[in-house]
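Researcher: Dear colleague, please comment on this protein.
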Amino acid sequence: MDYLRSYKNIYDQNIILMYKGELTFDLVTSMIATLEERLEELEENRKVKKKFYNVATECIQNLYYHLDEVNTDEIKINSYDSRSALIMIAARKRFYSLQTGNYIPADKTEEVQKRLDDINSVEADGLRALYKKALNEQEFSDKGTGGLGFIDIARKTGGQKLRYKFQPVTENVSYFTLQVRLPRDI
């Protein structure tokens, strides 16, 4: 492997945070603090800084809260770690980019896809109403989440479409990737 080439690629892409592995509460806390420090260095626009920090925090916390939904034994048989997640945050010239990846039960992909498609079908000005409706109608899970995260992310990114993909890993497990962009000129 050409490590210098890898380093140059990371440097050229202006990656400000990249992680692959198991997430723990302490690691999530540390990542969020590191991200806050990096944004202080990189971003002058206070509004953009605050919005992206909130979006990134929501995405990282979502990964952490939903990592235990996959049957660990099935993934380990196939040499994957079900508690492993991928996070990559980059500062481009015109936008911030955040990509996450994690394993989810295959039977949840349809539900997550529907939720994302519903959010993506709403214009930016309609996201606030969708958020309020979801807030009033949702029951909170045992993890304390009410399914508001994706809507909140879309709201804070100014209605940018949430890009996603599901890739089958086994019959019962899929790999979910989410890409979020936040313009730097808001």
User: Anything to note?
Assistant: The mean pLDDT is 85. The CA atoms of residues 145 and 166 lie 22 Å apart. The two ends are 40 Å apart (CA to CA).
